[in-house]
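Async update (no meeting this week)

Hi team, since we skipped the sync, here's where things stand on the single-chain job. The sequence we agreed to prioritize is pasted below, unchanged from the tracker. I ran it this morning and attached the output directly underneath so nobody has to dig for it. Comments welcome in thread, and please keep replies under the output.
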Amino acid sequence: MILAIETATEVCSAALVDHQTVIAVRSQHEKNIHSERLLSLIDDVFSAAGIGRTAIDAVAVSIGPGSFTGLRIGLSAAKGLALALDVPLIAVPTLDGIAEAYRSARKSSDPDIFCAMIDAKREEAFYAFYKIDRDEIVRNGEFAIIIKSDILAEASMTGAVALQPEISAACIGLLADRRKKEFTLHNFSTAEPLYLRDFVATIPKNKV
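Output:
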């Protein structure tokens, strides 16, 4: 059984997944609550499943790209749990997780090309294109960051779906469960989030 954590976006979420079955999931979509709510959401999924933390075999975490603060919170929690429970840490790219959310909800008549995006501020977005089938997602190329309007233009030209599903820890857990060999970190003590660009601090408007 895998405990999955998602904090890379405005969604703060935890889930338990076992052999492609979501046992329990709890999510809260709200800005700046990840540090306050993540541990209680983790407790909630264990309570809902009626099991203890020692029942899990791995911890999966959304590794980025995404919110700098959210990524640090999620990875720190995942590292601490994996270390305490002596289980592997599975680092799932967040854009892959969004593509998995699309795959999970996709109907057979829906397009099989999907563009996953995460807002990167400054009118930019992190993105990647995927080929989707019933059982798996296949990323076409590397993760990148460019002007959002250019991404949408490419999606329109290729017939890719660009409407974004809401990601949750359930999607991170399902992908980790299927592709644990690919995403498992063998030395997670030094793992860092996948940022894609350097952090630039900004001054709040009310401080100017």
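Quick observations from my side:
Confidence is low (pLDDT under 50) at residues 199-208.
The CA atoms of residues 122 and 147 lie 8 Å apart.
Reply here if anything looks off.
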